[in-house]
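Dear support,

I submitted the protein below through the web form. The confirmation email said the job was done, but the results page showed an empty box. After a refresh the structure appeared. I'm attaching both so you can tell me whether what I see now is the final result or a partial one.
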Amino acid sequence: MMFAAGGLAKSGYNLPAPAAILSCVYEGAILPFDKALSVESKYFAKLLTSPVSRNIIRTTFLSKGAAERGARRPKDVAKTEFKKVGVLGAGMMGAGIALVSAQAGVEVILIDRDVETATKGKAYSTTVFGKQIARGSMTQDKADAILARITPTDDFTLLEGCDLIIEAVFEDIGIKAETTRKAEAVIPATTVYASNTSTLPITKLAEASARPDQFIGLHFFSPVDRMGLVEIIKGAKTSPATLAVAMDFVAKLRKTPIVVNDSRGFYTSRVFQTLIHEGAAMLAEGVPPAVVENVAKAVGMPVGPLALLDELTFDLPLKIVEQAIEQDGEKYVLPAGVAVLKAMKAAGRSSKKDGAGFYDYPAEGGKHLWKGLADLFPVSADYDVAQLKQRFLYTQAIETARCLEENVIETSEDGDLGAVYGWGFPAWTGGTLSYIDTVGIETFVRDCDRLAQLYGPRFAPSAWLRARSAKGQGFY
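What the results page shows now:
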């Protein structure tokens, strides 16, 4: 009973099971036992045949299982065994990758600019294991054995004999190019080189490699030790054999792979941006900031978009926009929230890291929304909560459809897995493309046309999507 009530409080009515359980308990308590069982069986049948049940089972069980069994792995390539990997960059991402690799039984060479910095990266694993030991979920002996597999160093010659290199240095093409050349001077000619970049084009990064066919993207999510998805990005010259090696490594880590093609922001970062920019756009329209945050959580997003922006820092999405303008010029359409981020930066607020973003972060007590938001973005009473919910879900769904149209993602299953496990799109939907199918593609396109008239071309369906709608052709 308490479980059902807690589930209802956490998920609202997006998940039908908690409400059904409470109804079964209430109705069953006032009926004879046989009648109560009959009521329970009817609720169960209703849940079992609901779209939510179908969506969750398909994505979180069937599609996830198939991906982890290698559904997208090239079939005619021998399996790779991993004994030693190199991780270049001992920051937050590199440290996490080193941790999960060592946990999987692989020797790790963790490289940074000096031994002290690399050792700090290894210390992340010590901290994580220390918490597990305190909880009783790990022994000190096991932690010591895993830690012994991580060698922090600044010496690139130790990369000799590595089966795979994973680069996780600063997001700058020049720095990454220099790192690539230094590593390739040492590693075997057969070694696959992977970049953990989340936004820089893999094809561009591969230009620094003497073996671009052995260059691939392995985009882990933070924190690496807790996030189960890995986005594998194929560059223009990435070979099937290289893809197979990358998938074998993800399988070694017991994580879930999706495979995408090279594009700005790839798949997950590209679609995730629509969520945070939509939240910022709502703020500019006069929607109260607390409403923006709570509506996003009400549809099932784990965190509100303003809090997410604070975590990211405003510099990151603005840098992505600057790169896009540089590449595409006038063809590029600015995301809806850019003006808000620039206004916040002009007000001297840019991130949680700096202690001042959309939220204030006092030394004592929890964070709270910055009161000065009302001055920058005056609040209007003219908003509709149901439409705000729809905008959050639709903006992510239509961008996913564009990714499928442009062959950034090749399957609906990868699109949905990336949505649910990559940036936390609500599991009750089954993912962004399953959500379109649940709404009905004809209804979805009609709603998008209405939203485009109200809020702009970011909601406008493409000719490709209209053609699918005309044929009643969904994504499954």
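Response: this is the final, complete result; the empty box was a page-load delay. Residues 2-49 form one domain.
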